[in-house]
Design goal:
- The complex is a heterodimer of chains A (112) and B (282).
- Chain A has a single domain (29-110), classed as Cupredoxins -  blue copper proteins (Immunoglobulin-like, Sandwich), CATH 2.60.40.
- In chain A, 21% of the residues lie in helices and 49% in strands.
- Chain A has a five-stranded mixed sheet with strand order 3-9-8-5-6, with no helix packed on it. In chain A, strands 2-1-4-7 form a four-stranded mixed sheet, with no helix packed on it.
- Chain A has one helix at 2-24, and strands spanning 29-33, 36-38, 41-45, 50-56, 62-66, 71-75, 79-85, 91-97, 100-110.
- Chain B has one domain.
- Chain B has helices at residues 2-25, 32-52, 54-63, 65-100, 113-141, 145-171, 175-203, 226-235, 243-281.
- In chain B, α7 crosses α8.
- Classes of the chains: A alpha+beta (112), B mainly alpha (282).
- Chain A binds chain B through residues 49, 51, 59-61, 63, 67-77, 79-84, 86-89, 98-102, and chain B through 3, 7, 54-55, 58-59, 62-64, 66-67, 130, 133-134, 136-137, 140-141, 199-200, 202-205, 209, 212-213, 218, 222-224, 238-242, 245.
- Chain B: The chain crosses the membrane at residues 6-23, 35-55, 67-88, 113-139, 145-166, 178-201, 242-260.
- Chain B: One of its GO terms (molecular function) is ferrous iron transmembrane transporter activity.
- Chain B: It is found in: Membrane.
Chain lengths: 112, 282
């Protein structure tokens, strides 16, 4: 009985804590600004599935594309999209803007 | 100008190749040209609507609206290609006979013309919406407008030309091999599109990756190269496929093959039964 009571208190508490931890841990953000990716090299954690925000601050639409990550997503002007990446093996993954191939960048997946 | 031409060429190429294969595969079906043309027209309209609503679509389904829309579009194309191929496995022989014996009247039954319209619509809509957005961006950007518009038009023309050349090439295949070759092409095309859809659903977090890089052949044949691009469109080549993409590819391939074979078996047993009846009364 006591155990069940403790569980009833502890479980929501644990969820609240993990929720807090998630909220405190910001999503990795890739910014498109002035026809450049910022940062050019984005470090991500290998081995986990994570959300990545691609934010376009330019007045032109972009298409974030990567053959290495097999991702292809349209990012309209002055807006942002969220995509899932991973779990990735440690390594380097190229990406580019399909509407302006001079814009290139790399995701670097590293173990903790 | 050249960069613009290349981007527009790549956008148009995928739709052009799909249309060429579908148009070739439906050879001999009366009225196929009209249905495909209607599909192109409706696809262009749909592409413009998708391009205008791009920002709204992106923000739906917690930012995954576009990936889900893309996956839906691709999977509906896979369904239509499947229907087309299964139908052709039952009627292809009759159509081949008609191609070689001019004037022979062949009863073709229910035709997959609606499938032709949807496949074309979907191919034009998906690739076209990106092309429209891109051209819109150029128009809004100002600067060397005229050059870039010229490049864009040149790219579109080149893409259509390659599609046309493939179509003409297909027509040169002798009638008795024609439908088996085009049905193999459609089979691989459909499997590739299904794998692409799986990629989008994984991107939206709706499907697991089942291993992100099952193998990596980007050093042997890069997907950025022209050959890699062609193979990606035609047979679904991916240099670094994920597990879920492989599952969708193989699953689609086997499903279509099985449906085609079962159609053929049913037809053959029917033919045998019809031939057998007079034998019994003898």
């Amino acid at each position: 009985m006591l155990f069940r009571f403790m569980l009833a208190v502890a479980l929501p508490g644990a969820f609240a804590l993990s929720g807090f931890a998630l909220a405190a841990d910001p999503l990795p953000v890739l910014v498109i600004h002035g026809q450049q990716f910022e940062p050019r090299e984005l470090a991500l954690l290998a081995g986990t599935k994570l959300k990545l925000v691609v934010r376009n601050r330019d007045a032109l639409p972009a298409e974030f594309e990567s053959y290495d990550l097999s991702r292809e997503v349209l990012v309209p002007a002055n807006s942002e999209v969220t995509i899932y990446v991973g779990p990735l093996e440690p390594g380097r993954y190229q990406f580019f803007n399909d509407f302006n191939r001079a814009m290139q960048g790399t995701v670097v997946a590293k173990r903790n | 100008m050249l960069a613009t031409a290349i981007i527009m060429f790549r956008e148009v190429l995928e739709a052009a190749l799909i249309i060429a294969i579908v148009l070739g595969a439906s050879r001999g079906i009366v009225g196929h040209g009209r249905w495909v043309a209607a599909g192109v027209g409706m696809g262009l309209l749909g592409a413009s609507i998708v391009a205008i609503l791009a920002a709204e679509i992106s923000s739906t389904f917690s930012g995954n609206g576009q990936a889900i829309l893309d996956a839906g579009i691709l999977l509906s194309a896979v369904a239509m290609l499947t229907w087309h191929n299964v139908w052709m496995s039952a009627h292809g022989r009759q159509l081949a006979a008609r191609l070689s014996a001019v004037g022979a009247d062949v009863q073709t039954g229910r035709r997959p013309l609606a499938a032709l319209l949807v496949i074309t619509l979907v191919a034009v809509m998906r690739e076209g919406s990106e092309a429209v957005l891109f051209l819109w961006a150029i128009a809004a950007g100002g600067g060397q407008n005229v050059n870039m518009v010229l490049g864009g038009v040149g790219g579109v023309a080149a893409g259509v030309l390659v599609g046309f050349l493939l179509y003409r090439g297909l027509l040169r295949i002798p009638a008795r091999h024609f439908f088996s070759i085009t049905s193999w092409l459609i089979l691989l095309l459909a499997a590739g599109l299904a794998a692409q859809a799986a990629g989008f659903l994984n991107q939206a977090g709706l499907l697991p990756a089942l291993g992100n890089t099952v193998w990596n052949t980007s050093h042997i044949l890069s997907q950025t190269s022209l050959t890699g691009q062609f193979l990606h469109i035609l047979v679904g080549y991916v240099a670094r496929p994920s597990g879920i993409q492989l599952v969708f590819y193989v699953g689609t391939l086997l499903t279509i093959l099985l449906l085609m074979r079962s159609r053929e078996w049913r037809r053959m047993t029917r033919v045998r039964a019809e031939e057998g009846t007079p034998g019994i009364s003898d």
